[in-house]
Design goal:
Elements lengths: L1 H16 L15 H34 L16 H30 L7 E8 L2 E6 L4 E4 L1 E5 L4 E7 L4 E4 L7 E3 L5 E5 L5 E7 L11 E7 L1 H11 L11 H10 L31 E2 L4 E2 L2 H9 L1 H4 L12 H13 L2
Parallel strand pairs: 1-5, 4-10
Antiparallel strand pairs: 1-2, 2-3, 5-8, 6-7, 6-9, 9-10, 11-12
Helix pairs in contact: 2-3, 5-8, 6-8
The structure holds dinuclear copper ion.
Length: 333
Amino acid sequence: MRRHSLLLLLLAAIAATACGGPFPQTTLAPRSDLGAQVDTLFTSIFWWAVVVFAIVEGLLLFVIIRYRRREGGPKPSALHGHTALEIGWTLAPALILVFIAVPTMRTIFATAAPAPAGALRVEVIGHQWWWEFRYPEIGVVTANEMHVPLGKPVQLEMTSADVIHSFWAPGLGGKRDLTAGRITRIAFTPDSLGEVAGQCAEFCGASHANMRLRVFVESDSAFRAWAARQVTGAAVPSRGSPAERGQDLFAHGACIACHTITGVPQARGTVGPNLTHVGSRTMLAGATLPNTEEWLRRWISNAPSLKPGSLMPAMPLPDDQIAALVAYLQSLK
Ligand code: CUA
């Protein structure tokens, strides 16, 4: 018995220490008005549930202890039907459901409302397995990493290029499906600076788990600076540099079938992410790999080994050609 208790205590301690932060995808730390509304709803329902739990468990414990079987005690009387009790325990849950339903409906309608006029529009297109973000008003096209200004309303207009995906950045609140041929929307106003982690929340195939995203909430000036860089054409590599060789390989290789680079006329593919400013992104491959020389090299050499089912095929190129491509892509800040 003592050994069992010790073992249980040890397991509990291990489980408790496993709960250390940070929790980048917690739903309990809202960072937008939408997130705050959902969080308030959750918290109020949680406290209703606590009250119900305390009453039900309290009564149960009371009855178990007070009316437990006693040696030589009288036989309990049999009870068949009690109109007042039955009406009571039908009405009470119905009433509790009303208390939960009213604020829930209110929140649903409030969070489904379109963003106010003048909101920043971002088109979100789900692909197997990466995110395309297009800013139609400012002409930016990027992938996996969304930049938005602090305190400004944002309107996401979402659809899918293939199967159903689901946009989920818990800090911003909400989780909504992306379906081909339909536009679904999320509106939010971010209220704190920094990075918000997210991912696809609808099973969408082999690399569903590798379909992550990042949202960068920036000051207005930082956002403008980012957008101004993104709308420019791609950097032109200096003559004779490895990057120039990389550009040549890119423009005359298989890459152009799937990727666009503004300023490289041959590169107009739209199957894969737009790479005009790929060097300015922090992550690769559906925001699953850090955008470093080493990972970029491994990614170009054999993408499917890093992301099962990846549409980007393995490129069995000589090392020096891969190195030139990496140098070129990294120069595209
Ligand atoms: Cu896209 Cu799961």
